[in-house]
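Box 3.1 A note on notation
Throughout this textbook, protein chains are presented in two layers. The first layer is the amino acid sequence; the second is a token string describing backbone geometry. Keep the layers aligned when reading.
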Amino acid sequence: MTDIADNISSIRRRMAQAAERAGRDPRQVQLVAVTKTVGVAQIREAMQAGVDILGENRLQEAEAKFAEIGQQVKWHLIGHLQTNKVNPALAIFDMIHSLDSLHLAQALNRRTAGRRVACLLEVNLGGEETKYGVAPQEVCDTLRQLDKLENLEIQGLMVIPPYTEDPEASRPYFRQLARLAQEGNNLSLENINLRHLSMGMSHDFEVAIEEGATMVRIGTAIFGPRR
């Protein structure tokens, strides 16, 4: 437990320092603990150390953990969601970071049972075929379409930049996502307020915060390398 608690304490300190360097209030940035392949016992240790948002990549894995942990924390989906898995996902997740297509958005909108679902639009800034998300040049048009879906609450944008060991190499992508959010807000759409930027992981979260991240998704730096 000491390692996980110490890791979280160190991460929160570094998050605060990064926010202060950018002239931001550290309270504007939320820690999403990425629990892919992490066992329930370790998750409980993180919860005892103050973690209150869990980020899961896979629905099936999240279902098993949710059965044990329940709604003691908020659950965020950060991995790809297939349209045929929308119903069970809606039973678990408080927010979907990985809204990666209009098709998925329409499926979510149809099946929400009257609840407004918090979502982030995923943007594929690197143009990588192995990653999901809308192209940057499609963001504004996609937002106009999403604005018509009354059961979705689009709260921001999410990105997973091309991986590099150098955190500074991620900075242009984070900066571009912040610009796209500003452009989206300038559209003055009725039901969309892009107040969140989900960007930054274990190796580059400080750079992400300097560029405006409001949610950082951190797994390895909390729990160690994945099994």
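The chain is about 40% helix and 20% strand. The longest strand covers residues 152-158.
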